[in-house]
Amino acid sequence: MSSQEIPEEENLPSAQEPGHGGAVERADDPFADPGLPAHQPRIQDIDERAAKRSERVVAFLFLLSMLATVAFIASFVAFPVDKIVYIWPLGHISILNFSLGVTLGVALFCIGAGAVHWARTLMSDVEMTDERHPIAATPEVKAKVLADFAAGASESGFGRRKLIRNTMFGALAFVPLSGVVLLRDLGPLPEKKLRSTLWAKGKQLINMNTLEPLRPEDVVVGSLTFAMPEGLEEDSEEFQVEIAKAALMIVRIQPDDIKDKRELDWSHQGIVAFSKICTHVGCPISLYEQQTHHVLCPCHQSTFDLSDGARVLFGPAGHALPQLRIGVNGEGNLEALGDFEEPVGPAFWERG
């Protein structure tokens, strides 16, 4: 007979045969609530001396946290940022970073460890169950919650164990001091660095293209030359910092074309020296129009008139370019007769 053929009725069983062993016996309910195990009191619950020992341990951890915070602040003050030491197995690392990390870690760990030890040894560990109920609590439930909270607060000993409470408050009050100290490390204060440059009386003007001292005959009418102070080396570490303040534009104008009297007095035979740094946002100025004696900042198109005290003709710059008073030394080279009389570059605090 093929598998597609339907079997005849006489070949089917008249009724289902009972299973082996007769009726199946029902096992115990596997999902029955086993309930909570019997409560076992801790040593601290029955022995007051053990409770006192736990209290001292918790207080010691909180005190250790406070000492670690003090050590954090002391490390920040005592260790320089560039001090490198060898610590096995970490290798060569900054002693400042190492000490700050260790002390702050100890301070935070001790607060956490103290809180955990307090909860595990001194606070109530009686297991409590509460059946699910509607979100809106009945007045009876609210009263029970308040009573349970009061009982928990009383059993925790928060009010009775003043040593723990006070040391915990002290530890929590000291930890934020670490963040306050870190605010001091946002960077060194500029002090008076923005108010002065490397220019000083007697410093020769060095041509930035030839690196040779500039002589009056090197500057012809209509030309634009860039200069830096004598002694500033391009491969020095501070070059970019110093040239950002001391860069000069040297132009030569017919003395009769100079409109500003002070500019004429501070020039040498029509040779004038102005700061190359724009007074708007500090871009270097390099576009000079010899017919009009105007210079243009390429960043925001501020335009200055070098024949009229470098006053602003157009653009967002708020101040004229500072002028450097120059002269000629005994060797016939151009030299500065002092520093700028006002800060160069963008105005800050209205130039103090």
Automatic annotation (TrEMBL):
Annotated ranges, domain Rieske: 240-335
One Pfam family from the record: QcrA_N
GO function terms (MF aspect): 2 iron, 2 sulfur cluster binding; metal ion binding; monooxygenase activity; oxidoreductase activity, acting on paired donors, with incorporation or reduction of molecular oxygen
Compartments reported by the entry: Cell membrane
UniProt cross-references to InterPro entries, sorted A to Z: QcrA_N, Rieske_2Fe-2S, Rieske_2Fe-2S_sf, Rieske_Fe-S_prot
Name of the molecule in the record: Cytochrome bc1 complex Rieske iron-sulfur subunit
PROSITE patterns recorded: RIESKE
Region (Disordered), start-end ranges: 1-39
Keyword field contains Metal-binding: yes
Organism listed in the record: Streptomyces liangshanensis
Protein keywords: 2Fe-2S, Cell membrane, Disulfide bond, Electron transport, Iron, Iron-sulfur, Membrane, Metal-binding, Oxidoreductase, Respiratory chain, Transmembrane, Transmembrane helix, Transport
UniProt family annotation: Belongs to the Rieske iron-sulfur protein family.
Record-annotated membrane-spanning stretches: 57-78, 98-119, 163-183
Chief location category: membrane
GO CC annotation terms, alphabetical: plasma membrane
Lineage: Bacteria, Bacillati, Actinomycetota, Actinomycetes, Kitasatosporales
Subunit record text: The cytochrome bc1 complex is composed of a cytochrome b (QcrB), the Rieske iron-sulfur protein (QcrA) and a diheme cytochrome c (QcrC) subunit.
